């Protein structure tokens, strides 16, 4: 069993109103020293088997077609907590 | 300048209907081998200065009070792409 993490963020050239709202609220709430915030999504995907190349290829396809909108979002796939079996 | 990443996930004991909907849709879409999906949020926070202990303490407070709901969510803070200045 392994866990894959898919991080999905808006592409840098796409405006992120949620992140901007957070960044604007911070000084009002007493936090300084932050120049920008961007908000994205994180998916934890539990695999039945090991996170081998075939499984990761599947997850990349999944991210492209289901988890992210590749027109406006970038994603990264990585493996976490892999245990050899 | 440094970037801090805050990952916010629902606590394990809290049901995640979004993740469950994705996990249920996967076999229908031709993906097998996934036993569970959980969806959370990821925040990229650009700092004006270095990600020292004071800045990270601030970000932890920010995550607790603004980015996550600690009643139902867990968060982790980590530093990415730090450059010495």
Descriptive report:
The structure is a homodimer of 85-residue chains. The first copy, chain A, has one domain: Mth169, Chain: A (2-Layer Sandwich). Chain A is elongated and about 45 Å long. The mean pLDDT of chain A is 92. The longest helix of chain A has 15 residues. Chain A contains two helices and three strands; from the N terminus they run βαβαβ. With 85 residues, chain A is an alpha+beta fold. In chain A, strands 2-1-3 form a three-stranded antiparallel beta sheet. The interface between A and B is medium-sized, with 34 and 34 residues.
Strand order of the largest sheet of chain A: 2-1-3
In percent, how helical is the residue content of chain A?
A: 25-40%
Radius of gyration of chain A: 16 Å
Tell me the series of helices and strands of chain A, N- to C-terminal. EHEHE
Proportion in β-strands of chain A = 35-45%
CATH overall fold name of chain A: Mth169, Chain: A
* Structural class based on helices, strands and sheet pairing of chain A: alpha+beta
Through-space gap between termini of chain A: 8 Å
Oligomer classification? homodimer
CATH class of chain A: Alpha Beta
The biggest sheet of chain A, with number of strands, parallel, antiparallel or mixed sense and barrel status, is: 3 strands, antiparallel
Number of helices of chain A: 2
List low-confidence stretches of chain A: none
Shape of chain A: elongated
By CATH, the superfamily of chain A comes out as Phosphoribosylformylglycinamidine synthase subunit PurS
Number of DSSP-assigned strands of chain A: 3
Could you report the average pLDDT of chain A, rounded to the nearest whole number?
A: 92
- Largest interface (C-beta under 8 Å): A-B, 34 and 34 residues
The tally of domains of chain A stands at: 1
